[in-house]
Amino acid sequence: MSAAVMSVRARLRGLSLAQRAALGLLMLLAVFAVAGPWVWPDPVAQDLSRFLEPPSLSEPLGRDHLGRSVAGRLASATRLSLLIAVACVTTAIVAGMLAGILAAWRGGLVDTVLHGLSEAFVALPALLIVLMVSAMSGGELWTLYAGIALAQWIEYFRVVRARSALLLSGPAVEAATLLRLGPMHVLRRHLWPDLRPLLTTMATFGIGTAVLAVSTLGFVGVGVAPPTPELGQMITEAFPFYHEAPWMSVAPALVLVVVLVGLLGLRTKESAS
Amino acid sequence: MADRQAAVVGVTTIPPLLDAEETVEATRVERGAVRRGAARPILRVLAQRALQAVSVTLLVSTACFLIVQNLPGDLAYRIAAGRYGYDRVTAASADAVRADLGLDAPVWQQLAGWWADLVRLDFGTSLVTGAPVLHELYVPVTSSLHLAGTALALALAVGVPVGVVAARRPNGLLDRVTTVWVAGSRALPPFLLGLLLILVFSVHFGWLPAVGHGTASNVVLPAVTLAVGLSGLFARVTRDTVAQIRTSDFVAFAESKGLGERAVLLRHVLRNAGVTLAAYVGVQALVLIEGVVVVESLFAWPGLGHALVHAIFWRDVPVVQAAAVALALLVVAVNTVVDVAGLGLDPRPRRRSVPS
């Protein structure tokens, strides 16, 4: 346990100031998203007598045009975005990595088929893929998840395939094979350590891209179906009330920007170490 | 979304760079093959892009077929309602439709039929308006081309000069401004930027129309929204390329033989930078088209993205298919133009006998 704490500390020390700030910002947002449901249990509860109520102590972000708590909706929307993004990126990484290693390892027909598929996919705008998949049954979460994961696995596949092909043909792997060390050993000791930093960097991109995709779809009106709160959809709903209730549109826009800035900050050049 | 390609420059990292390197690598391999004396390079490029166009179209079309298969309800009843009227939908009429259209055939046979329609360019009729889809798509295609073209021209017109000037003084003011510009446009999603522009220029100052289509001023806000991010990226790439080319031997030679700064820049530096920049525009085509979809919805611009989003909203599958195919082909078309431009700028692959 203490060893784990120590290693976390060591990691933190390796981060630059900008990275620490970004990490703090994202943690704050995560706490807001996780704790939100306890403070505001029902994000879709309406109270029409209190529509467009300005921010106050009990209602820090005011209420929207249907008298719903903006803070409660925001917390729930943030949680939704982050959860979908993490789920999509995890799926895409696992799938892309396995397919990439498989293609590099087996070569031949497997490689030709997988590579050909990725070539066709890469020519398609990712947003188009997400839109098409979500068209299959609109407004449902799983289509959103499937669409984004489907759009994202390709880049992991391409990078992992190129990188593993290089490593697998290198002297280290050759030596390991000569020593009769099995494929699991090669995977764990030769491929994974090399791929890991690459994949973590790509994952911060991927999460930002996924959050953006969810909110973009919500914004144009084909994402998560109302009344489930979602950032992009909240912005669309709030925009007509910009003059009477600016807090309604500023709050979700700000959360979106904070997520993107936070992820951007995590990637800034490392530091002292 | 945009990050897949948007990432190539700036604040970051390895994987996107890989993308760019891969592109460069790919062109090199292509050229190598050409030099060994296959077909003429331009034919080769066109053939490759044609193959890509076909595979992309098949992919999109198959996805649409899956959408139709997954739509809730029985397709036969739906079509029967369209044919015989909503009050005459009976099991018998649905059966008639099913037999007539072969809806009870195995899925793979239906898919083959679907592809056959595509080959005959039969995109069907819109389920909403009832008009032939190909006919309906004329306005969206031209509007999207108009918007994307304007945005691209604007981005190049701003980005390239800024990059050239920034390259004169690395880490100078303009250079740092560009870095912030790129990072900022990454953190501000296009639809938020569009909303901000509407608030400032339409609502507050009332200078420009927020939505609509027809007069010349309508294109300004959507095109600027698209161009802000792109021009920053173009500035970065131009700056990096120009700075790199400046250090090469042939520039030193041109300077030492007494050519003026202007001539060196125009004749040697910019032409070489153009090859890289053209390839980069191709990479950014995906980002541009994604942006078009979002921005068109925001500004009610009657283009392909607008049509696609509406068709998805109404479950109008024939229009979804046609609009999606058109958008995908637009990406391929931009890339083809870029490839041909690259060949025009770079004579090396054209002269087979000259070793490089």
Automatic annotation (TrEMBL), chain A:
One of its GO terms (molecular function) is dipeptide transmembrane transporter activity. Keywords: Cell membrane, Membrane, Transmembrane, Transmembrane helix, Transport. Pfam families: BPD_transp_1. It is a multi-pass membrane protein. InterPro entries: BP-dependent_transpt_permease, MetI-like, MetI-like_sf. The keyword Hydrolase does not apply. Coiled coil: none annotated. It is found in: Cell membrane. The keyword Transport applies. Residues 78-267 form the ABC transmembrane type-1 domain. GO terms for cellular component: plasma membrane. The chain crosses the membrane at residues 21-40, 82-105, 117-136, 142-160, 198-225, 245-266. Belongs to the binding-protein-dependent transport system permease family. This is ABC transporter permease. It comes from Micromonospora carbonacea. The lineage of its organism: Bacteria, Bacillati, Actinomycetota, Actinomycetes, Micromonosporales.
